[in-house]
Amino acid sequence: MKNAKTILCLLMLAALLLSGCAAIENLPKLPQITAAPTAEPAASTPAAPEEEKPETAQITFSPAASAGEEEDGNGFFVHLERNTREAYDPAENKEKILNFSWDSVRVLSDRHAEAAERITETLAEMEDAWYTGGSVEDGYDYGYNGMLEIAEDNYGFAVEYGGIMELEAERTVFVEHADSDYCAFLINTYYYTGGAHGNYSTEAVCFDSRTGERLGLDELSSDPEALRARLLEQMLKLAEEDRDGYYSEQLSLTDPENYAAAFAALLREGSWYPGHDAFYVFSTLYELGPYAAGIAEFAIPYESLEGILDERWIPRHTEEEAGLRIVPMAEVPEGSVEIADLLVLGDGGEAFLLICEGELTDLQIQTCSIGYEDRFYPDRNLYYCGRLKNAAIQLALLMQGDLPDSMIRYRDRNGEHELLICMSGEDGSYFLTENS
After folding, report:
1. pLDDT tens across 342-383, in order?
2. Exposed, middle or buried: residue 153 (CB in 10 Å: 0-12, 13-18, 19+)?
3. With CB atoms counted within 10 Å of each terminal CB, which end of the chain scores lower, N or C?
4. Helix runs in 20-80, H state only
């Protein structure tokens, strides 16, 4: 039975959108999608978007209006596929004792195909090491067989003494940035092997997009020592300025006299990345503060690294505005808009174009669910595009259900936008509306 909050949300959405959305299937390999036969014009969609849907005839982009111009940092696309293995009790094979899940990553680029392939291979090697347990360090990476052994032992204990049956291991990948300069990924791992709570960790992995090689901190500057010194100086400054605020708990296990040594130790592989708005350095769990404080994070303004951090490693943001809309592929004249990439959001779905008018960066497509104050929040990452300009992503789209469960996020000159993919309750057409 749905609770009162969900019912209220359904009523609000029905009034606003007359729509529902479908569960998104796992992302398979890239398909060859063909346009559906031309159909009779559909009835107009609800007026949820602020602007009226433009007529198909207004699409005037040409293949030359490419989304892959190297000087603009375009042409990198990242597909993420969710994988899951489950294990059941050894006695009757009925009680689930282990949920083991992870993301596989595929990076694509027309202009830097070899580099993209190398990045994909490196991430696949890291994924395989996590799955097999080949990267075991400090007892955190068990691999599937290791977790299965722990889960079977835990099952025997739980049967005899009571307790939680199901253990969990999860590895998720988030794309922080990907264009023709560099690619940055955050790899989050979580383990629950019993007890009051699980343990988690984050690893940042950065690549040179032109070579596909993994980047080290010293490769980000012509003066590596000056970069390290400036980063340390800025971390100490942040901690001092907000001693009684954010860092009061994050650093509570560290003596202020030892801040310099403790912060310098963070300038290692896997603990930094160039983010959207700042250069980030972070700790591991328990390293500087208690479990409840989580991972300590330092956001260092790019302005403070001017002249030291090479400009190539500072993300470029578009100065243009951008708009997105979904159009059935059969309604778009052939050759009138460049198709930059293909994406499946529902196996066996119809062919649509997600058309960008203008220029955007950091396009993300994620699953989402309703949460606090009836707002939708992102859950799992499905897709990332570094930059798109007057071009389209071809979608195989199939949705069903009551609530939106897919979200599109992107940036343009006006900041970050969040859109929900919705389906009209009147004629089954698809449209985008802003997250409330």
Report:
1. 999 887 888 999 999 999 999 999 999 888 888 899 999 999
2. middle
3. N
4. none
